[in-house]
Recover the amino acids of this structure.
């Protein structure tokens, strides 16, 4: 499986000629480096929750128009997108097959945010090897301890380096792919990676420095 990062939490997964896209949000398209046309060949788009940094409605409309992809998400997102004419296959919990991908959807709580109502949100375990927790560090996710690849939010208003490191200590993944860092300058992303990479290396965990849009790993 090839995983390509396109700014913040937007990830393109490719397996056996199929493309699965996670969370094309506003930060992904903010400076024009990435456009909806980048995703014209996707078969399915998964939106983990309705926050704008994970869901850019205008961009999603264009992606679906170009690709005719199916959109999977929560009932909350489906209700939001219905007036826009975007049909959503509502996912609540459990296993589903999407082409070459096997997904386990897990309802999880969003990490606390100041003065904000928390959205419905889904984490996904993909092909028995990749865990995308969305914006959750819930103990629910400890069932995936020693997962091969952890998609790891590394920066957010609701996070500290210590909180990130503790979540990794609990899950003990083999590899980390950092996300949720698309709203800060490149030099700060690199500085933060300079902190995380040796810290996790001491635990025998590989940290993939995907700091530029279009960089990828194969797992």
């Amino acid at each position: 499986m090839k995983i390509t990062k396109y700014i913040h939490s937007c990830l393109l997964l490719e397996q056996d000629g199929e493309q699965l896209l996670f969370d094309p949000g506003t930060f992904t398209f903010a400076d024009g480096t990435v456009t909806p046309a980048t995703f014209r060949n996707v078969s399915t788009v998964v939106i983990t929750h309705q926050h704008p940094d994970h869901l850019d409605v205008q961009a999603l409309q264009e992606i679906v128009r170009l690709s005719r992809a199916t959109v999977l998400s929560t009932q909350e997102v489906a209700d939001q997108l219905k007036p826009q004419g975007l049909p959503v296959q509502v996912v609540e919990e459990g296993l589903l097959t999407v082409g070459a991908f096997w997904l386990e959807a897990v309802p999880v709580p969003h990490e606390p945010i100041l003065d904000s109502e928390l959205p419905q949100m889904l984490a996904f375990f993909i092909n028995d090897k990749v865990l995308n927790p969305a914006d959750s560090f819930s103990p629910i996710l400890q069932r995936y301890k020693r997962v091969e690849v952890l998609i790891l939010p590394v920066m957010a208003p609701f996070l500290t380096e210590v909180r990130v490191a503790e979540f990794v200590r609990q899950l003990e993944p083999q590899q980390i792919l950092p996300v949720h860092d698309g709203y800060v300058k490149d030099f700060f992303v690199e500085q933060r990676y300079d902190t995380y990479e040796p810290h996790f290396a001491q635990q025998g965990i590989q940290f993939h420095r995907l700091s530029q849009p279009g960089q990828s790993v194969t797992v």
